[in-house]
Design a protein that fits this description.
It is a single chain. It is built from nine helices and four strands. The chain has 222 residues and is an alpha+beta fold. The protein folds into two domains: 132 residues, no CATH class; 56 residues. A four-stranded mixed sheet has the order 1-4-3-2. A hairpin with a 2-residue loop joins strand 2 and strand 3. Helix 4 packs across helix 9, helix 6 packs antiparallel against helix 7 and helix 8 crosses helix 9. The C terminus is likely disordered.
Length: 222
């Protein structure tokens, strides 16, 4: 596996991913250790590079584009399905992507970033090291993070109480429309794709927490 060959692909933006063997294992580890540093390691097919860094990705997929550090190595936030439900606001929860069957340069950059994370005690130390080497990339990542937390997450925390009252969460369109309406009332601009992700995030968390109650760990957002 050292060359990270391609394998069957299931997007982490889909709830189905977390019913797969890999997804279940990831959630089990998150629930067991409750980490404040969490880094997902992925490789992407080279033909998907432009799609992943596309500035229109938030409209097409509901999430910000990934950011290239160097040598085709990309960084970005993990799936919002688990970011807003299993982690606190200032946890370091990012994904690192390189091309499958990477070049020596790509692998070198990938390992350098891993060394930075492994040698750090918290989010601040990681970002300080990354910013020193990749200032423009970290600046852009921070902009995406605060845009995400000030809008996407604030809306999720507001809407989850109303979703809890819904006895028929399978009525996907009705719930998506309710989320869009709430966003409009809060003067938050989101796409229908982002509304779908918020609903999927709620359902995923509810799946794994039978005694589900909304938490207040993001309450200071906005």
């Amino acid at each position: 596996m050292i060359n990270c060959p391609t394998s069957e692909y299931i997007s982490t933006l889909k709830r189905e991913y977390y019913t797969s063997k890999t997804g279940k294992r990831a959630l089990a580890l998150i629930n067991k250790y409750n980490p404040d540093i969490y880094l997902e390691l992925h490789c992407y097919r080279k033909e998907n590079y432009n799609k992943l860094i596309d500035t229109e990705r938030r409209y097409k997929d509901g999430v910000p584009p990934l950011i290239e550090l160097e040598n085709k190595v990309l960084i970005g936030s993990i799936s919002p399905l688990i970011r807003i439900t299993f982690f606190d606001k200032y946890d370091f929860s990012f994904m690192l992507e390189m091309p499958c069957n990477p070049s020596t340069d790509s692998m070198g950059t990938y390992l350098d970033v891993l060394d930075m994370v492994i040698g750090s005690k918290n989010r601040f130390e990681i970002l300080k090291k990354l910013e020193y080497k990749y200032p423009s990339a970290v600046k852009k990542a921070s902009e995406y993070f605060f845009e995400f937390s000030d809008n996407f997450v604030r809306l999720f925390k507001e809407i989850q109480w109303e979703l809890m009252k819904d006895n028929d969460l399978r009525n996907f369109k009705t719930n998506r429309d309710a989320i869009m309406k709430k966003a409009s009332q809060m003067n938050i601009s989101i796409t229908s794709k982002q509304a779908e992700l918020i609903l999927q995030a709620f359902l995923l968390y509810k799946d794994h927490n039978s005694d589900f109650l909304p938490d207040s760990s993001w309450a200071s957002v906005g």
